[in-house]
Amino acid sequence: MLRLPLAATGVILAALLLYLVLGAMGAERKLAALEPLPPGRADYRITLAFPPERFHQLLLQDQGRLTGVHGNVVDLKDVEPKALRDIARHYWVRAVERGSAP
Amino acid sequence: MSTLPLPLLRAPWLTSRRTRSLARLAKGAAGVVVLLAAWQISVPLVGLGPYFYPAPSDVIAAFGDLIRKGILPAYLGDSVARYVTGLTAGASLGIALGVLIGLNRRASLMLSPLLKFLFAIVEVAWIPIFVVWFGYGVKTIVLALVYVVFFPVLYNTLLGVRTAPQLLVNAVRSLGASRLQALRLVILPSALPGIITGLRVGAGFAFRGLVFAEIVAAKSGIGYLIFEGTESHQTARTIVGMIVMGLLWLGIDQFYLRPLERATIQRWGLTVDAEQRT
Fold first, then answer.
1. CA neighbor of B54 nearest in space, from B243, B212, B267, B186
2. In B221-231, which positions are buried (b, 16+ CB within 10 angstroms) versus exposed (e)?
3. What is the pTM of this model?
4. Would you call B69 and A8 a contact, using CB atoms and an 8 Å cutoff?
5. Can you tell me the mean pLDDT for B69-96?
6. pLDDT of B67 above 90
């Protein structure tokens, strides 16, 4: 009787899991050049696949101090390593580089 | 000319359930295609810009853009999480209080006037005060949804509990069942159709409440996308939000609410699905 809701929930959970796994793999790839990440806060340049919109700026502001936007690149300061991994998981983040010193 | 016997004319696959549902699906899809074609053709005839009257191609482009930029998946996730949380909390509260009021006369006398008063205040009126208390964001939206779901579930549960056959309650009690056992074995199963009806009504109300609450008190979610689209002169995004909202409701109804209803209410022959009647 309840096979359909269970199957639908299974499909949703599987898709979510796949999304998370692919995101984590993407983050590994994007941060490979920066490893090992510094233990404390650091500055980074986040390159997106497009000029950031308000949605992306608000999301990045939650993870660090947004100091500038140049085309597709966002300068983000005082970013924790965990926050950087969260940022790199997003599929719309193309690359992450170490930022210039303040 | 000889005529074929009736069983040969009506091949079994023609009347199978799957074929009928496929035919129904094809008819529904044809309706959508006709609507889209009429919409696309009307765009140059109307002659307004994409801000006033975007074409389906603009909407499809906006859909792709929102996916590419990660906005739609994030907003959809936020909306679904808020909806599920609000629905679960509101339904749990409504069922618990409905059973309590239905079984306890003192609780009924104490709470009924207050609940009737609160029922009259629509959730829209609560949202500004929730914003003052909890700020913009998840708490306000979830509270608004809890409020919306709570009343239909409460009143339907109450109705179900009060109409549970007293004869059966007396019968199990006379056989030595405790009050808790009578509740578990007789009252709750009798109230279940009422609870499911309340849940279905509450789920629909919550969906409308979600859009409104996100427009007023959120910076993310499908409701916010609908609002933000017009604010930023991207009407195609607004239409994407509306379409996603509609599809989401269809999915919830088709994959969760209908099967749940079939598994409870229709199973006991209390109602018939509208589609089965036609």
1. B243
2. bbbbbbbbbee
3. 0.83
4. no
5. 95
6. yes
